[in-house]
Design brief:
Elements: E1 5-6, H1 16-25, H2 44-61, E2 67-72, H3 75-87, E3 93-98, H4 101-110, E4 115-121, E5 145-147, E6 150-151, E7 156-157, E8 169-172, E9 189-193, E10 204-209, H5 226-231, H6 241-256, H7 259-279, E11 284-285, E12 297-302, H8 308-317, E13 320-321, E14 332-335, H9 342-359
Parallel strand pairs: 1-13, 3-4, 3-5, 5-8, 8-9
Antiparallel strand pairs: 2-10, 6-7, 9-10, 11-12, 12-14
Helix pairs in contact: 1-6, 2-6, 3-4, 7-9
Bound molecules: 4'-deoxy-4'-aminopyridoxal-5'-phosphate.
Amino acid sequence: MSRVYNFSAGPAALPQEVLQQARDEILDWKKSGMSVMEMSHRGKEFTSIASEAESGLRELMGIPDNYKVMFLQGGASSQFSAIPMNLLRGKAGADYINTGTWSKKAISEAKRYCEVNIAASTEDSNFTTTPAQTDLNLDPDAAYVHYTPNETIQGVEFPYIPETGDVPLIADMSSTILSRPIDVSKFGMIYAGAQKNIGPAGLTVVILREDLIGEVLPGTPTMLNYATMSEAGSMYNTPPTYAWYLAGLVFKLLKRKGGLQAMAEINERKAAKLYAAIDGSEFYSNPIVPNSRSWMNVPFILANSELDSTFLSEAQEVGLVTLKGHRSVGGMRASIYNAMPEQGVETLINFMADFEKRNS
Ligand code: PMP
């Protein structure tokens, strides 16, 4: 068996150790005689898997006790609607920071439910930077401030956590969660689709400060109501049990590897090496201002876009796959989440240097 280095933005590479454990347990989970896929979500086996996953995530991220952790479905995209439905709490509007494709999607969904104040937008720069704290035009009456710490498509990442005073800060961390330690207490809510740095697609993690739960817009679907979902322990209906189990295995693995501080050191190093290789060449370039470059998603373009398809096919031949940039921005993108080994990044850098030599 040979595994490739998969630079997909999501669903993304999973840690090999986790896949191996899942393989070993697939027919018979801990002498239960069943696969996790076959278990009742209300049985004692799955309940223990679910609660261990939650405590694993709480420990990894240092989630305070006054936060609920939910394991939901519908992707991060469902949260774009659930957030205004649950968190306006009688207010007319919310602040949104626009730094790229995913912020824009959150904004257009929120506009269906409330007044949206664009507290800052970097669209004029073609989303190649992040706004400074002093550029944020925050409304003290806003129900919340929403932002996207890491824009998966543009590869632009906030170098700081915005200060929003008493207004709850809400972060779409889909492509940066678990990449480094963060102070959860600075946030009203953190949410993430699992398929990048947590586990397989089909699971969405929501971390929500308890005091924000309760008042919903009339007509809010039960499945999007945080009060219902958190009271039911994310089991109002059948949850995505297998994805939840795999996420739990990922949390345990990260703990064994030294937790998020250890991940941060590796991730920072991986990203620094790749950006240095890009910046050090005349052949490759990345348009993002250096202090806002993503650790997780590294877009780059070739000096001659006619070579794009050759680059991709030769990369594929040496086991470097899914490097094609998002269709909206073109070029290349290397997503280098926790599960991408440092060796994978080095192999990519060596391939890039060799390709440059042969083609310039
Ligand atoms: N936000 C960000 C930052 C993303 O990268 C993505 C997925 N690529 C989404 C939201 C949408 O997630 P989902 O597909 O889980 O709805």
